[in-house]
Each structure stands twice: as C-alpha cells, then as structure tokens.
C-alpha cells in the first residue's frame, strides 16, 4: 500500500509540474503575441527596452521610397557607407542626381532593386553610378545582417520576385523557408521581442551549422553584377561601377589583385571597365580603425569634395559626376 | 549509480562547451591530484609521520602562487581553473593530514572535482562532501526541498538579471571611462559595484546550489547576508564563505593562526589576505584589495581589544554598543570600508584606481549627474528594475538575517497565489534580462577569477 501511495504522489507531482510548465508556455506565447499586437506592442517594447524600429526600413526601404518619386532625375548614384561619407553633403540638393548611398549590408541584391525601381520611375535616366570600396564586393548572405537588410525588407515590402533563386536558396539555408514567408516576417518584424529572439537564434544556428565562404568577391555579388549590367543594357542606361579610396595596406592591395582576376574571369572588366582603374590608395592615417571609413574629423564637405575631385580627374568614367561638384 | 555516470557525462559535456583545451586541462588536474592523493594517502591515519605545517602551506600557498604566476604568464587560462584547483589542493591537504581517505574510484573523484554547477565560480566545495552524497542512493525526493532549490535558482537568476546585469551598464561606463566622469559619479558607481558584485556572485551561488540540490547534492551556502556585518571580520564569515574557509584551513591555521601572539597573528592575517588578493587576479589592485582587508582586520583587532577592556571597566557601555542604532552604524561603516576595497578590486589597474581617486573631489564635468550615465545605455526602465531588485534583495537578506523562515511564508497562501508568484518572478527575470539583451554582457564576474 505504501508503495502505491508513493507512486501516486510521484504521479501527482509529475502532473503538477506538467500543468505548471504548460501554463507557463501558454503565458509565454501570450506575452509574445502581446509584443506583436499593435495596441500593446509599444508598451512591451518599452518594458523590455527592445527597439520598436522595424529592421531594414530606414536602411533598405526608405531609400526605395525616394527612388519611386517621379522627379525627372536622370542620374542615380548609389553606394556603400564609405560613399555615404563622401556624398552626404550633396544628398537633398542634388539637381539631376538622385544620390542614395546606403551600406554594404544591403548587398548587390538591394542595389539591383534600387536601380530597377529608379529606372521604372525615371524613363529619362541616362546613368547609374555605384560607388563601393573593394570590401563591399565581399558582401554576402551572412548570418548577421542579411535577414534584416535583405530578406526582411525586400520580401515584406513586395520585392520578393527580385531575389533570384540562387540568393533565395542561400537565404533559406541560413534562415529557414518558414521565416521567409511574408506573414511570418511580419510577425517577427513588428515585435521587438520576436526580432531579438529570432535573430539571436538565427545567428547561433548559422554559427553552428551554416558554412559561409569568405570570398573577396561573393557569389551574390557576381550573380547580381551580371543582372545589374543586363538591366541597364536593356534600358539603354550607362552603368559605372567605381571604387571609393582605399587604405594603402598590403592586404587591401592583395584583395584588389584578386578582384581584378575575378572581374576578368566573369567578363566584368568589359562590363565595368572603370572599376579596376578606379582603385586609389590613401595614407592609412586617414582611416578609422576598421581600415574602411574615413576618420570622423575628415567628414567635411571641402575635404570629401576634394577626394571626389581627385577620383573624377583620375577616372574618365566618373566624368558624369563633374556637375555634382559644381552645383 | 546511474546518476553518477549521467552526471559524469553531463559534466564533461558542460565543460566542453568552453572548448576541448579546457577539458584536457581539467582532466590533467584531476589525474595528477588523484595520483598524488593515492600516493600520500596510503599511510595509516595517526602514523608517526605527523603532517607538517610547511607541507600544508606549500600545497596551499603554492597552489595560489602557481595559479598567479601561470595567470601572469598570459598563457591560456581555463574556465574555473582557480576554483577546481583549490578544491584539488584542499583535498590533497586533507588526505595528507589524514583527515580523509583518498577516493579510490577515479570516476567518482573526477565527478566531484568537475561537478558542473560549481565549476565556473564555485563554491569551493570539499571533494569528500560531494563524494558522500554521490555514493548515497537517491531514493526519495522531498517536495519541499526541491521547491526550495527551485526558488533558489529563480532568486539567483533574479539577482543576476535584475541587479547585476543592469548595474554592469552603469559601473563599466564609469570605471572604463573615468576621465570623463565626476567624483560623485565615481562614488555612485563604486557603491553600485558593491551591490552588483554581491548580486552577481550570490546569484551564481544560488543557481549553483539550487541546481546541485535538484540533482541530489547539497552544497555549502557561500553567502550569509554579508552586508549586514557589523565588522570586516564578520563580513568574511558571511562573504564567499567557501574561499574564506579554504584560506583559514589551508593558509591561516597552518601559519599558526591566532595561537602565537598578537604580532604573529596580525602577520598571519595579512599573509592570508594577500594570498586571497593573489588568487583573485594578477593586477596590483587585487593585492591592494587584499592588503586593505588585512589592515582592516588588524585595526579591528586592536580596537576590539581596547573595547573589551573598556567593557570590563564599564559594563553599561557594552549594552549601548549592542543597540540597534549602533549596529546599523557599524553595518554602514563596514559597508563603506568593504566598498572602498571593492573600488580597487573593480578598477582595471592600480594606475586607473589612482586616477579615479584623484577625481574623487573633482566636479569639472559640465553635465548633470544623471546625464553622465547616458552613454552606458542605462535608461529609466533599467533604473526601475535595478531598484526593485535591490529592494527585494535587501528585504530577503534582512528577513534571513532575522532568521525568518521564508519558505514557510511562501507555503502559507493557496497554490494559485503561489503559482502566480512564481510566474511573476519568471516574467520579471525574462523582462529584466531583455532590457540588457542589446548590450554585450560578460558572464558571471567571479567566472573571470
């Protein structure tokens, strides 16, 4: 009898623990849902100190909205964060130029969507410039940034068709196809808690299970440079790919040699003839610790315009930017 | 028996999370100490070869010194090495002194040395204490005991997430960038650090104790409301008890303890605290911290001696000295002394500590005190959770100090209320954790020692 009593007690305890855990799970789900549900989401962001800003909106989608304005501009200037440093003072008062540099995280997939959007809304367009430091060519579907800057904003805002199969497969490998569905992205994107939980999980998963190749020119870049070239060709628009000034280090020079080789192998030296000639190496003293960006104290219009002048004088394909400096 | 092997596997898996190299290091320490224990343990207890104090000191101080020199060399330093090597050294001394017989089964010995709840930050348990419990079959589980352990884990997590993690934002901002902070900000950060360190270490100890308890192993209590101490001497009976006990057993007493005159006793106290400083890290600031505690105790000893004499002459003064107000003042004074020593403990180096002291009186920062903490990312919600956490911790410690049975209070209301309380705590932990999730947070502070 005593044994059966003890067994019953153990059983009761097990049931009790199970009920406790089930209620906890239900409460956790409710907590998660309330962090997404509009009237309570802001309150949840406040008490958890999680960001209410939707990922990729400012970086990827806001520039897109500017490109959709039918304002008669004829020259599009895109670029990464180094280009942003150089062109920042011209944004907003740029005449025939539409200047929208972003950052390397949007990858060439994002740049392609920008160009496509601009050309759709600007039939008079004549030129597209992409200014990138050599390291941006390495930008790939990585575990840290691609979901926020590529997958989330593009799929959520209806640009899914512009992500080709090759890149979509890469995204699926890194993030899981369920999390690339528009509704699921919405559920993640509109809750600071979900964004935190999902991206932390995805990052850990990628660290453990997904092998990312560290190439000087990523497969995604190769894939989308071709698409960008074809798109501009079809619209009879001139495309110019140019490098921003680079830090003069043996590593950077070595990377540029690899880039030259990859460009030759893929015929990019013919498609973007100006790029390989646009490598200019500057004194390392001018750069931040990341060896990429100019030091903060150099971020003055006169200095940056001076560098732009130098680039334009050295590279014929940049001559179309001359008017920018005289405006 | 199954529990033993499961635990060995869990220990290995847990430790390998920190890398294979660390695992091999741990195995090396286990093999060496196991081998030595068998060699020295073969003599009969009470044999003519009585244990020599210098051998005990050689193992005790030698272990700490070896750790210090190894740490200073800059070579790879495995997670928890400072803790499990002290456990191994203490075990060897106990075997040498004939207090215990060596553990014959290597599996059991390895399990005790590498017991995963203790491996990162202690407590520095006695191998034999774990061994006794491992070898005892776990037949019946006590529901109340398990619930206490579960509550212990929750409380530890609360201390870590709602106090220690949040306080870290404020403390590291000031200690890492002290040049741009005013004297009052440095003072606040020093006070907060005293609270942070306690919440962090006591939090870890509670999690470790709770986890071990749920696995059927009862481990020692590492903290007993240390900030309610009325003297530094008492503080060390309540703070990091396992280390204090280790130092007392394997350094202070073999040095002669308090049995060889006042001067020698004071020297022994100083040596013990300097060894404690060396154990904590390679910087001179740790030695200063240890020396300060040594000096505090020497001075306290002198004052106590004088007071005892006065008390004998005038017994009325004795009752005044023990009143509530006097005790509260003594607690505050002890906290100030201890916290001043923590200041050296937290400073990145001795030169930083000196630099900060020079800024104590300064007020050349042209922004408000609250604004000084903004770069740290510390915002109003952090303040709210931290304050709530500190009030809770102070209340819990006060009730424990007054010997209140907190579990009996918990058990009093109906189950619905108890569960609501548990869910409330769990969500508090989750939410507090999330508020610091965007910042890069280090693990437990004592995991670095």
Description:
The complex is a heterodimer of chains A (327) and B (449). Chain A is α/β, with parallel strands linked by helices and 327 residues long. Chain A has three domains: 2-48; 57-140 and 215-326, 3-Layer(aba) Sandwich (Rossmann fold), CATH 3.40.50; 154-209, no CATH class. In chain A, 57% of the residues lie in helices and 8% in strands. Chain A contains 15 helices and six strands. Chain A has helices at 2-34, 38-48, 57-67, 81-87, 107-121, 146-156, 165-175, 182-189, 192-209, 219-234, 250-266, 268-271, 273-277, 301-314, 322-326; strands spanning 75-79, 97-101, 127-132, 238-243, 246-247, 281-282. In chain A, the strands form two sheets. Chain A has a four-stranded parallel sheet, sandwiched between helices. In chain A, strands 5-6 form a two-stranded parallel sheet. The model of chain A is unreliable at 1-6 (pLDDT under 50). Chain B is mainly alpha-helical and 449 residues long. Chain B folds into two domains: 10-135, no CATH class; 144-448, no CATH class. Chain B is 71% helix and 0% strand. In chain B, helix 1 (2-16) crosses helix 5, helix 3 (53-72) packs antiparallel against helix 4 (81-96) and helix 8 (143-176) packs parallel to helix 20. The longest helix of chain B has 34 residues, at 143-176. Chain B is globular. The model of chain B has no long low-confidence stretch (mean pLDDT 89). Chain A binds chain B through residues 6, 13, 20, 23-24, 27, 31, 46-51, 193, 196, 200, and chain B through 140, 143, 379, 381-382, 419, 422-423, 426-427, 430-431, 434-438.
């Amino acid at each position: 009898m005593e044994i059966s009593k003890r067994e019953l007690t153990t059983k009761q305890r097990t049931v009790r623990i199970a009920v406790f855990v089930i209620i906890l799970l239900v409460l956790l789900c409710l907590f998660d849902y309330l962090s997404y549900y509009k009237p309570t989401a802001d309150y949840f962001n406040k008490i958890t100190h999680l960001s209410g800003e939707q990922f990729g909106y400012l970086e990827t989608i806001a520039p897109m909205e500017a490109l959709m304005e039918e304002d008669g501009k004829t020259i599009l200037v895109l670029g990464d964060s180094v280009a942003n440093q150089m062109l920042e003072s011209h944004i907003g008062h740029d005449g025939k130029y539409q200047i929208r540099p972003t950052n390397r995280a949007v990858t060439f997939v994002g740049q392609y969507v920008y160009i496509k959007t601009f050309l759709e809304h600007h039939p008079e367009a004549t030129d597209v410039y992409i200014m990138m430091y050599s390291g941006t060519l390495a930008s790939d579907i990585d575990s840290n940034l691609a979901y926020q800057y590529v997958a989330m904003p593009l799929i959520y805002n209806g640009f899914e068709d512009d992500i080709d199969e090759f890149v979509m497969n890469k995204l699926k490998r890194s993030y899981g196809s369920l999390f690339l569905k528009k509704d699921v992205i919405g559920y993640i994107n509109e809750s600071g808690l979900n964004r935190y939980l999902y991206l932390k999980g995805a990052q850990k998963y990628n660290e453990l299970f997904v092998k990312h190749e560290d190439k000087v020119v990523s497969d995604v870049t190769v894939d989308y440079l071709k698409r960008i070239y074809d798109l501009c060709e079809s619209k009879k628009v001139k495309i110019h790919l140019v490098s921003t000034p680079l830090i003069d280090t043996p590593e950077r020079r070595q990377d540029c040699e690899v880039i030259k080789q990859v460009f030759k192998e893929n015929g990019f030296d013919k498609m973007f003839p100006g790029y390989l000639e646009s490598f200019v190496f500057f004194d390392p003293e001018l750069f931040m610790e990341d060896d990429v960006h100019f030091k903060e104290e150099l971020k003055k219009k006169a200095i940056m315009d001076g560098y732009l002048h130098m680039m334009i004088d050295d590279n014929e394909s940049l001559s179309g930017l001359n008017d920018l400096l005289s405006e | 028996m199954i529990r033993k092997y499961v635990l060995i596997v869990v220990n290995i898996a847990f430790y390998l999370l920190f890398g294979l190299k660390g695992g091999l290091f741990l195995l090396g320490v286990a093999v060496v100490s196991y081998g030595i224990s068998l060699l020295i343990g073969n003599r009969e207890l009470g044999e003519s070869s009585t244990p020599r104090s210098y051998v005990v000191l050689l193992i005790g101080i030698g272990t700490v010194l070896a750790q210090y020199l190894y740490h200073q060399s800059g070579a790879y330093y495995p997670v928890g090495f400072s803790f499990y090597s002290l456990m191994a050294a203490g075990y060897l001394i106990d075997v040498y002194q004939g207090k215990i017989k060596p553990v014959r089964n290597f599996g059991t010995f390895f399990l005790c040395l590498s017991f995963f709840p203790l491996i990162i930050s202690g407590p520095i348990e006695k191998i034999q204490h774990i061994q006794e419990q491992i070898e005892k079959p776990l037949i019946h589980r006590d529901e109340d005991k398990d619930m206490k352990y579960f509550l212990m884990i929750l409380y530890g997590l609360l201390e870590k997430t709602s106090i220690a993690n949040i306080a870290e934002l404020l403390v590291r901002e000031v200690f890492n960038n002290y040049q741009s902070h005013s004297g009052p900000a440095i003072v606040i950060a020093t006070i907060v650090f005293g609270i942070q360190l306690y919440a962090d270490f006591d939090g870890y100890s509670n999690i470790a104790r709770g986890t071990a308890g749920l696995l059927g192993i009862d481990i020692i209590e590492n903290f007993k409301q240390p900030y309610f101490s009325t003297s530094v001497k008492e503080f060390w009976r309540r703070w990091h008890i396992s280390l204090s006990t280790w130092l007392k057993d394997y350094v202070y007493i073999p040095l002669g303890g308090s049995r060889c005159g006042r001067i020698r006793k004071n020297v022994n106290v100083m040596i013990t605290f300097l060894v404690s400083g060396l154990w904590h890290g390679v910087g001179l600031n740790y030695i200063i911290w240890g020396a300060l505690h040594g000096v505090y105790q020497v001075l306290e000893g002198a004052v106590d001696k004088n007071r005892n004499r006065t008390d004998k002459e005038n017994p009325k003064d004795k009752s005044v000295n023990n009143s509530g107000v006097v005790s509260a003042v003594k607690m505050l004074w002890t906290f100030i002394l201890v916290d001043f020593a923590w200041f050296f403990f937290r400073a990145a180096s001795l030169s930083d500590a000196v630099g900060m002291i020079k800024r104590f009186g300064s007020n050349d920062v042209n922004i408000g005190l609250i604004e000084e903490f903004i770069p740290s990312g510390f915002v109003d919600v952090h303040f709210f959770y931290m304050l709530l956490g500190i009030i809770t911790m102070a209340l819990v410690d006060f009730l424990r100090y007054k010997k209140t049975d907190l579990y009996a209070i918990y058990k009093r209301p109906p189950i619905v209320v108890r569960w609501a309380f548990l869910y409330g705590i769990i969500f508090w932990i989750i939410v507090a954790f999330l508020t610091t999730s965007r910042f890069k947070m280090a693990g437990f502070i004592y995991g670095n020692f």
